[in-house]
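Practice problem: Ubiquinol-cytochrome c chaperone domain-containing protein
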Amino acid sequence: MYRRPLQSVVRKIINVSASRATYGKLFNVKETPQAATEEEVGAFTKVIEAMGFTGPLKYNKWKIKIAALRMYTCCVERVNYDEFFEKCSLPDTLNSWFLVAQLHVWMCLVRMRQQGREGKYMCRYIVHSMWEDVEQRSKIMGIDAIHRKESMRAMTETFYAAIFGYDEGILSDDGVLAAALWRNMFNRQCEDPRQLELILEYVRKQMQFIDTLDGEDLLLTGEVKWRPLLEKDAQSILKVPTPTYNDAGL
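Answer key — structure tokens:
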């Protein structure tokens, strides 16, 4: 109930944003970069961004917002949540759905942060789309306003704690990342170490795959594909090919 009804809602959000983006000449999208680039940020741009505003970007802001909505939709509609629930022994609840969704949102955020100011701007709207979606799903489930507010507050704390832990883990070794997954994805309740190993491997191979995607395409389209949770010989994706030599050592 908390999943299927809102797939159409996410599509509606994208369609509404797209219609706004095409309304009037102010929202015309140009594929060519605008004058201001990350390397040419002027003093005025630095001042207004220090005040919390966003200065001129390389691409049209509405184009980036729509791409952010589409990227979030990829985190929702292109992930087999039932498979995650089954393989990780997670209950089929809104909270479990959120734990899986935030993992994929985080991976998108890590990738888009590499795209400079435009990527950071896009990250803001990926997260915004997520909270809009979570709130709509809560309403569909009939959760009253008071409990919905409490739930949103708890999910917000969970999300930022997870982001901090995952960021630390992806920059460290498998032990640190596995600990972050155990705390956040499994809520400190994982009795089968093979489940933790499966998700750890999934994150590593997925991050490696996302890094190969063109950053400019991601900024303009938001299209992300996900590798399957279960793959034959998935470890080969993570291993660096071993060089082979002939008898002469060449």
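Discussion: DSSP finds eleven helices and no strands in the chain. Students who identified this feature from the tokens alone can consider the problem solved.
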